[in-house]
Specification:
- The structure holds two protein chains of two kinds.
- Chain A is mostly helical.
- Chain A is built from nine helices and no strands.
- Chain A has a domain of 153 residues: MetI-like fold, CATH 1.10.3720.10.
- In chain A, helix 2 packs antiparallel against helix 7, helix 6 packs antiparallel against helix 7 and helix 8 runs antiparallel to helix 9.
- By secondary structure, chain B is an alpha/beta fold.
- Helices cover 36% and strands 23% of the residues of chain B.
- Chain B has a six-stranded mixed beta sheet with strand order 6-7-8-3-9-10, with helices on both faces. A four-stranded antiparallel beta sheet of chain B has the order 2-1-4-5, with helices on one face.
- In chain B, helix 3 packs parallel to helix 5.
- Chain B starts with 20 loop residues before the first strand and ends in a 7-residue tail after the last helix.
- Classes of the chains: A mainly alpha, B alpha/beta.
- At the A-B interface, helix 6 and helix 7 of A face helix 2, strand 6, helix 3 and helix 5 of B.
Chain lengths: 270, 278
Amino acid sequence: MTAAAPPAGTQMTILDQVKAAQRRSRISFRFWFIGTWIVLVGALLAALTATGNINLDFIASAGPFIVQGAGITILISVTSIALAVVLALLGALGRLSRNPVINGLASLYVSLVRGTPLLVQIFFVYLALPQLGITLPVIVGGVLALGFNYGAYMTEIFRAGIQAVPRGQREAAQALGMPERLIMIRIVLPQALRIVTPAIGNDFISMIKDSSLVYVLGVQELLWRASTIGRRELASLEALLIAAAIYWVMTIIFSAFQERLERRMARGDR
Amino acid sequence: MNTTVSGRITHPIDTGQLGEPIVRAQGVEKYFGDNHVLRGIDLEVRQREAVMLIGRSGSGKTTFLRCVNFLEEPTVGSIEIDGLRVDADPLHARSRAHQEQMRQIRTRAGMVFQDFNLFPHMTVIDNCIEAPIRVSNVPRAEAVERAEAYLGKVGLAEKRDEYPARLSGGQKQRVAIARALSMEPKVLLFDEPTSALDPELIGEVLRVMEDLAHEGSTMIVVTHEMHFAREAADRVVFLEEGRIIEEGPPEKMLDNPDDDRTRQFLRRFLVSPHPDES
């Protein structure tokens, strides 16, 4: 097989045999792993269909309508997570600030938002703000509520990430005469961002699913479409199955993407 | 007899050719809480002088070195580097004016740490040009040229585009030296630069430092490498319990010190000598 193989080529070296065995075992693992998924999911679907309560015609006709909600779901998730990252960055810097007012403000934000349910916050935007004379387009309201909520949780992630950058990094930058702001921007934050990337990825996956809560605002995202058409056609089971499947597929796709991103960012690690 | 960018000087310089005092520490005291770590240190370092600080762990030598560039704020005393004098001002440590003073004095002192502290998200060359460009406003092309010269000097010109993670400990420390040199500081501070290295990597770092000393770099070195001190030092300073006990030329200090405490300290080294690398 390789140059090091015995001349006759009939006999593999022990090293080649080990490599081949490892390869076989990897392939076999994947085969059984994926097989397990397919069999279990297939069995579940088959069982549901077998009850005779699944309206396949409905799935075919309402499917496209529901799927179109995925675009809005992604739009809301991406915008909200972007807002959350900005808020979290500011929040984390605030939580680490020596200025008591700034620190107090950031801490209040985190405490308040983490201390109340997300659904309450969404209703607040929808029902309470208009009473104060503020009416927002539903998508804007939804994004604000989700972004503020996630921003508070992410503030703590960013804070921990900044604090996880070794002290020596800051000292080395100080010793080079770098001013505090430059140290934060050029030395600490880039390393902190790498530390928190997996956590942000996790939050994004949660966000894809939590974005369904804004259906109460009437935003025509996945869940709104599924529940609306499901109720109208008396096919909620089918409609929700479709919605669930789409959420699931989206998170699987994003997880794969996240894995790749993390591998790429690992470049340069000590 | 000035060092140029390439740092080459034709002859080694002996003590007779030392220049004017360029670093002056006066009455430096440091408390950590109630712990009196430095009990009044006066030290003057002249241009082109290599001063080695020796002493037991806990004697205060590293703390003193970190006070010289205000990585630790002295509780009492003052530091002067190249005409800029900064007084300890622990009550106003966070004031903008004092922060700026500390920053100014740090640009005049390059520091090499025990555990390198290279920036892991930047390549070797970027590590070396970051501060010159953003702190000293050196034009990029010039900063790169300068950094390349210093990387060449530490023997790592071909590693310019590597990330620190791909370097050995000895290489990392040599890059850290090049990074410090790239700011063209008036004095180099070394804080036990070989203590985190595998024994077989110590030699390459000490060789670079020895070259620097012989070429007339002003340096203050905290070290346990007595052979290195003998080769490269103009003056050896022995500290104990936060005070300078004794100082003098290396031959005298290492072979025939006056003070009993110095002798005792050195005896321990002779009993369990460090691996000889130089």
